[in-house]
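Researcher: I'm preparing a figure for a lab meeting and need a structural model of a single chain. I don't have an experimental structure, so a prediction will have to do for now. The sequence is pasted below. Please return the structure as tokens so I can convert it later.
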Amino acid sequence: VMDGVAAAEAEAEAARTRHAAMRFGEELAAKRVALEDSDNNNKTWHELHTRGAQKMLAMCLANGGIYVKLGQHIAQLDYIVPEPYTKALSALFRTNMTSPWEDVVKVIREDLGAEPEELFGSIERTPLASASLAQVHRATAR
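Model: Understood. Here is the structure written out token by token.
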């Protein structure tokens, strides 16, 4: 347990660390902007970022789940992430793959301890909606 003095010192150190990190980030951003200002350099960076963004999008789609969630988060970081990444990864907000019915049955079995037919009066195999970490199926109570 910290006393009042130790807690105040820890809080002050945390504030100093936060300010140093913010200054460092601002300096890096300024250097990036300065480098991108040169036409030839800007074109090269843009091409590299575009290729990298397409590879990252393909990886997120191939792996699904948490990778899609992370890609969606990166797509929202337009204040720090190069534009080709935010543009390419924004596709993850529109495209979500559905899980096969066999995987849905497996999850229901594991989580609820019974077959879907035993738990529900009816359940549609085709999902109504799909998101990065889940999908929704219409079902009726037994």
